[in-house]
Design goal:
The chain has an eight-stranded parallel β-sheet with strand order 21-20-19-18-15-14-13-22. The chain folds into four domains: 184 residues, Immunoglobulin-like, CATH 2.60.40; 304 residues, TIM Barrel; 86 residues, Sandwich (Immunoglobulin-like); 87 residues, Golgi alpha-mannosidase II (Immunoglobulin-like), CATH 2.60.40.1180. The longest helix is centred in the middle third of the chain and has 22 residues. With 721 residues, the chain is of the alpha/beta class. It binds beta-D-galactopyranose (GAL). The site of beta-D-galactopyranose has 9 residues, from loops.
């Protein structure tokens, strides 16, 4: 070696040692990629990623409209390292800071103090990371978010681990003498282990938790806006129902005057299922096109159940075989949807046999797991994508692929899926499962709002009329109002003693369509989840000990130290607080954020900034409206309006404050709204010269879709004028 070569070698060796020990490793480089969103590629991020599988298309214009944000963390306190083919991540936590998200959890809201292994699976009764949408995204109560984009089983220590060199060590306690000694000492960080040589990280600025969630949803393209029919009511019929049975069922809905906007066809329509053929069974469905047309004539869309595992009896089988994995699921082959060939074959088949005939959507079952029947982690796929990556992204890929087909024919869809992950905000699917705790279903609804997914607390059966009506009430205040009667054959009127209460709440959902649709438009255009955890509501920050029933609000509502999870109440849009009742309970507590709140049904004031105990009757779901709340409603109807219909609008106002509402409308079915074919029409309540409240609707934008009469009936629920 020459002297110069030696010097160069020694220098580069020294540099590389310094590089490994110092800045580039411990202080990662963060680049602001969208307003208030910073990205950092650690190590060698893999080709297969969650956001890649979801094919996100950031909503840049909407992101630019959010308030400016500064990088929300001390950069020097974030550490990222790649050691031995694994990525080690550490993000700081403050005292009192709460951590929300980290997957679709069913029992807890604040995840601080929990260890999770984020793994797509059917929920097994524990918030341990194995769930339908194990999204590696968390939102802090301090108003920022962190996403790890890696399609791996990520282990998260959400404030459970303590480093020797931590700046904020737990207090040293002596178990011999200290009664307060705890086995879980204070931890000041979220640490994560990604079993891969790298990962892409994103940090989302606030200033509030809601802003962090909005940025996350908007980076994913903005929330999905369902077609209007998706926000009505849906019944999923029993397995093996024929087209005749289904048409008879529709007739029964008409006789009971019960809303029905789409119908779900469960196993029995394929010529073979588990695995599936994706071809109509000619005995039960001799004329699918005619059957779908008959439904469409009544304003009812049809949704088909499937799992994506291809039966040897399917005409697709031999064509798709080269693009499938090493293992089968119920003897069906597993398409490798990272391969364009597999996607194309599915597309051609599904377009011809379903979409072209008028099918409105799918229920994508069994993409979550249950380890005993999906492919094992030793499975291999022809693209080289491994089984773990496939498991973490399969649900996302099927959602994304089917969504694309509907977009191509300019028809909005809205369906069901059992697995999702990061990046799903703009995908047209609602998550469901086979678990059936009513309470936990509501907690899942609360938690869905942190991670850009939608969830339905579907109703299947009940052991009493009380349980039936309580479940039906909460499902009508969720992203998808649905009975899934695949096994039980239940109908809305299964318990005649509560038939009236059940139809009242379904009718109320239909009446609230303008409110709900506008709320979903907020999801689409602003990234605000339609159903929201209380922790995302401005003004919802309380100290732990209430004084005489009153809660102490902190100066900064997000620096709260509330240790109790608010897991059984939520907001639907900006104004409506929903507090579902559960069978066996006659009363419940409701946490009211700052500002006055009013009973939805009577307009009476019920309190402000406090915990109240309510004893509601069986026939109503407790609903409360914020002061100044404006709720646009239409008359009861059983199907959603067609684009050319003009409906009378009744607008309710609650409380004494002035208020406003952006009433959204478009054709209700196509993607023309993405080309500007929509309207936002302000509804405002102001105080007149006489001190009385007055409501006005602005002139709707000319030439844009607007399906309401210009004359509005204003109802001042509290002031009565
Ligand atoms: C289950 C699914 C149910 C129903 C059933 C039909 O996997 O969760 O909702 O569709 O399959 O066999």
């Amino acid at each position: 070696m020459t002297i110069t070569k030696k010097i160069v070698f020694t220098l580069s060796l020294a540099l590389s040692i310094a590089f490994h020990a110092l800045p580039a490793q411990t202080v990662p480089r963060w680049q602001e990629v969208y307003p208030g969103i910073w990205k950092n590629s650690v190590g060698k991020p893999e080709k297969i990623s969650l956001l890649g599988a979801a094919a996100i298309q950031p909503a840049r214009e909407a992101l630019a409209k959010l308030p400016k944000a500064i990088f929300p963390l001390e950069k020097a306190e974030i550490s990222t390292k790649v050691i031995g083919g694994k990525t080690y991540l550490r993000f700081p936590l403050d005292e009192g800071e709460q951590v929300f998200g980290l997957g679709l959890n069913f029992q807890s809201v604040n995840q601080r103090g929990r260890i999770m292994n984020l793994h797509v699976d059917h929920y097994g009764g524990q918030d341990n990371g194995r769930t339908h949408a194990p999204v590696p995204f968390y939102v802090s109560s301090k108003g920022y978010g962190v996403l790890v984009d890696a399609a791996r089983y990520i282990t998260v220590y959400a404030g459970t681990a303590t480093r020797v060199d931590t700046k904020h060590p737990p207090i040293l306690q002596d178990r011999n003498t200290d009664k307060n000694w705890t086995a879980q000492p204070y931890s000041d960080a979220v640490e994560m282990l990604v079993p891969a040589e790298g990962a892409t990280l994103y940090v989302f600025g606030g200033p509030t938790p809601m802003h962090a969630v909005q940025r996350y949803n908007l980076m994913n393209g903005g929330g999905y806006l369902p077609p209007k029919w998706g926000l009505g009511f849906t019944q999923r019929v029993p397995t093996l129902y024929s087209q005749e049975d289904i048409l008879k069922e529709v007739q029964q809905f008409e006789e009971h005057q019960f809303p029905l906007t789409f119908i779900g066809v469960e196993p029995g329509w394929h010529s073979m299922s588990y695995p599936c053929t994706f071809e109509w069974d000619k005995t039960r469905f001799p004329n699918p096109k005619d059957f779908l047309q008959k439904l469409a004539d009544k304003g009812i869309s049809a949704n088909l159940w499937l799992n994506p595992y291809v039966s040897p009896k399917a005409s697709l089988y031999s064509k798709i075989k080269p693009f499938t994995g090493s293992h089968t699921v119920w003897n069906g082959i597993v398409p490798d949807f990272t391969m364009p060939q597999a996607r194309q074959l599915f597309k051609e088949h599904f377009m011809r046999h379903h979409l072209d005939m008028g099918v409105g959507g799918y229920k994508i079952d069994e993409v979550d797991g249950f380890d005993t029947w999906v492919w094992p982690d030793v499975a291999t796929f022809p693209s080289g994508t491994d089984a773990e990556q496939m498991r973490q992204t399969y649900g996302l890929m099927v959602q994304q692929m089917t969504a694309e087909w509907f977009k191509e024919i300019n028809k909005r869809t809205y369906g069901l899926v059992r697995a999702s992950n990061a990046g799903a905000s703009n995908l047209p699917y609602v998550i469901y499962n086979d678990y059936y705790s009513h309470r936990d279903f509501i907690t899942a609804l609360v938690n869905s709002s942190f991670i850009g997914v939608l969830w339905t607390p579907e109703v299947r059966a009940s052991s009493s009329p009380e349980e039936w009506v309580r479940r039906m009430q909460s499902v009508c205040f969720s992203p998808m109002a649905m009975i899934n009667a695949w096994a039980d054959g239940t109908k809305p009127w299964t318990f005649p003693e509560v038939e009236k209460a059940v139809s009242d709440v379904a009718n109320l959902r239909m009446q609230l369509l303008p409110y709900l649709y506008s709320t979903f438009a907020q999801y689409r255009f602003e990234g605000k989840p339609p159903f929201r955890a209380m922790n995302l509501v401005e003004g919802f920050g309380f100290k732990l000990e209430p004084e005489a029933g009153k809660l102490n609000t902190t100066d900064n509502p997000y620096a709260m130290s509330l240790r109790k999870d608010i897991n059984d109440q939520y907001m639907m849009g900006d104004y409506l607080l929903v507090a579902p009742m559960f069978a066996g309970e006659k009363s419940r507590e409701v946490y009211l954020p700052q500002g006055k709140w009013y009973d939805f049904y009577t307009g009476k004031e019920i309190g402000e900034n406090q915990v109240i105990t309510i004893t509601p009757s069986l026939d109503k779901i407790p609903l409360f409206v914020k002061d100044g709340g404006i709720i646009p409603m239409i008359p009861v109807r059983n199907q959603v309006p067609k684009a050319e219909t003009t409906l009378p609008l009744t607008v309710r106002h609650y409380g004494t404050a002035t208020g406003s509402f952006q009433l959204y409308d478009d054709d209700g079915t196509s993607f023309d709204h993405e080309k500007g074919q929509y309207s936002f029409t302000p509804l405002s309540v102001l105080k007149g010269a006489d001190g009385k409240l007055q409501g006005t609707m602005s002139v709707p934008a000319p030439g844009k879709p607007f399906g309401y009469a210009k004359e509005v009936t204003w109802v001042f629920m509290t002031m009565g004028n």
